[in-house]
């Protein structure tokens, strides 16, 4: 029968005791004897547990019962032989009740995060955004504008704005035509900046900003009108404020779930993008609907918006469709189809700007 | 098997320990107990890397099991009188504790952050448009910093509360010779103290830290027990001033030298400072900044090593067990400094390898300007172009790998050898007291260190 010396800790005092342990293939238990050879205890082999990932040569054994206090410390070679017998992984120490508790808490945790991110935070964002007056929003908008200018242009002195009186007058005329009667207190303004990108954005408080690249790319003034109406909708629907508040409220909660500096951060950013994107897609669709409606109201051809979307696809490919769930915008081609379906062949459409005004707008940044 | 291995194999009962380890009262008891740390830094490194990879692959869920594994290895590597420490915290209980913490924190954090942002925006919008152009609050970045700062302040009580709970959980899951460690339930009073002291530390730009450290150390150690015997931390408020003094001097020297060097380099590239240098020659400028940092990093590293080794020595030498001095530590600064330097070099190699990887990636993708183009893509700018998406993905993976390697390298090559050295240079005096210590009843800590985990400082070991 194999046997060896070991150290026994009774779990009552810190005093080590020198013992002998004896085991055999035939028996189901490990026999413990004290230094004088008196039997000390008998440990059933299938209840003996050891830990993985230990560094010390050998092993520390305990019984499977939770909080079992006794420990046996034995050497590597002896343990190799004994471990075979113990069939360490024969039984699972985690009770069904324990598993259920863990499961219930995990569901609670996910539910609480989901409720915050998808229901409570968006509702709070909408409610709180309404408390920020258009004047205050405009102040925030100015700050954001400086940041955007700094990022794209390397300075924030307003030098990037194209200041051409005729072009500006034309753009203002288009804005007045498309803006609704009730602007919800927002002072809508439009400007063109000298950046060669196919984009436009609405700042909190009503400052609409177009990149010159978009103006140059447009072949008809309806395309600009479509984008302008779309951006007006963002302002009036308070989308910028709501999205900032919503992002602020959900960022921390999402990073709670993934935690930790390395792997988790990436997962958290991805999840954050997905959540923001889903809200943002909804807002974009709302703004598209508003734009189509506004264009129809003043008899401007809504297919102009569709043409703009086509040129977006030509320039960048349908990135929004490729990203699907991760995209902040709905698929560009789908948006184009929606706008195009609003085109009515029996209606006579008009231009907002005269051809001279349209030319002035085109030349604003020259 | 060598003689030394046999000694370990016998659970500390071989030659040098027998006299002490048995119950034989007549046997001569040695006056001191040797502390050992036998952990292998490469094994720690691979364990960290491997568990981190699994953690990433499981979207972070494995991290609870990962930490339990790393702790088991580190704990079992530390031994006193030949008997290793036992860590018996489990991944499952950590996972459950984390879930419990998330339920509470999700509500608190979401509402706190949205309110902070709302209040911030309300205040911001109040500036008169004419004045707001000159207001410092309107400067890019300042506002974000304010929001970040207020969120941190709102979270500070939660963080300090969680810190104590986590320390208590770790103590409760640690055994030596079958006897549990424990900390008293005092998370709330720790929370108030620690939050206030942290505020003071932040307000004094860190100068208050040594005083905060000894006070909080006293708070924790005075509530720590092994079995039924208690530890006590003595030492006046200025105990850690000396250990931290070189750190202050080193940091001041580091920053002034760094700024001088960067200014000189910037002048070489162009008349104006950082911005133009970055705009015109971003890659070279970044490389010079990196090299300058590397050349000067010995300064903060020495400060850190001094604080660690000297601070540890002073704290241990002022620690009591059952009312008597427990240990004598003779740790020197230079060894620790050496470990820190070596680990920093490993991290530098990792960063250079990462940059080389990015350069290769940019070459393959056909980008003209590596730096600018890459950061445009990572910044989401170029993500609109479908073709560059795989580059974005590959670059993110490289970046992730770099972070992972750096964090593992620092733990395995700086922290672990330092711990080993500090333990080896410490001798435990309270041998009789230790041997006679009686067990105490276990603490039920249902939430484990879940809160600390959720708040993002549960990492490492």
Question: Can you offer a commentary on this structure?
Answer:
- The complex is a heterodimer of chains A (366) and B (461).
- Chain A has helices at 76-86, 96-129, 134-153, 165-178, 212-217, 221-236, 239-258, 263-297, 303-316, 319-323, 332-341, 355-362; strands at 3-9, 17-22, 29-33, 39-44, 48-49, 59-63, 71-74, 189-193, 200-202, 207-211.
- With 366 residues, chain A is α+β, with helices and mostly antiparallel strands.
- Chain A has two domains: 3-86, PH-domain like; 112-362, no CATH class.
- In chain A, the strands form two sheets. Chain A has a seven-stranded antiparallel sheet with strand order 4-3-2-1-7-6-5. A three-stranded mixed sheet of chain A has the order 8-10-9, sandwiched between helices.
- In chain A, strand 1 (3-9) and strand 2 (17-22) form a beta hairpin.
- In chain A, helix 2 (96-129) runs antiparallel to helix 7 (239-258), helix 6 (221-236) crosses helix 9 (303-316) and helix 9 (303-316) runs antiparallel to helix 11.
- The relative contact order of chain A is 0.09.
- Chain B starts with a helix and ends in a 7-residue tail after the last helix.
- Chain B has 18 helices and eleven strands.
- In chain B, strand 2 and strand 3 form a beta hairpin.
- Chain B is globular.
- Helix content of chain B is 66%, strand content 9%.
- Chain B has an eleven-stranded antiparallel sheet.
- Chain B has 461 residues and is α+β, with helices and mostly antiparallel strands.
- At the A-B interface, strand 1, strand 7, helix 1, helix 2 and helix 3 of A face helix 1, helix 3, helix 4, strand 3 and helix 5 of B.
